[in-house]
Amino acid sequence: MAVRHLQQITAALIEGGCASWEAALVVEGAYTAQERILAGPLSTIAEQVRAADIRAPALLLCGPTLEACPILQAAGSISEVVFAQH
Fold first, then answer.
1. pTM
2. What does the chain look like in DSSP terms, one character per residue?
3. What is the separation of C-alpha 50 from the centre of its chain, rounded to a whole number of angstroms?
4. N or C: which end of the chain has fewer CB within 10 A?
5. Span 2-39, pLDDT tens digits
6. CA distance 55 to 49
């Protein structure tokens, strides 16, 4: 996923029918010692990624199945930003 185009990607997803409040995760450096995970609603995840200086390679995951994600469950709410470094 092109991190620099995340705003356009999330806007297209919302315009295409995804709910703006839908859960979203961005995973930077998946399965590496530098892995970072950022969680938030689809409508604000791009701004959160920019503020956290998330870099490529990074994955965007979104959708209702993320509600079962342990990171989101630990936060208690998708509106709470979770930033974890493993």
1. 0.81
2. --GGGHHHHHHHHHHTT--TTSEEEEEESTTSTT-EEEEEETTTHHHHHHHHT--SSEEEEESGGGGG-HHHHHHSSTTS-EEEE-
3. 11
4. C
5. 799 999 999 999 999 999 999 899 999 988 888 888 88
6. 8
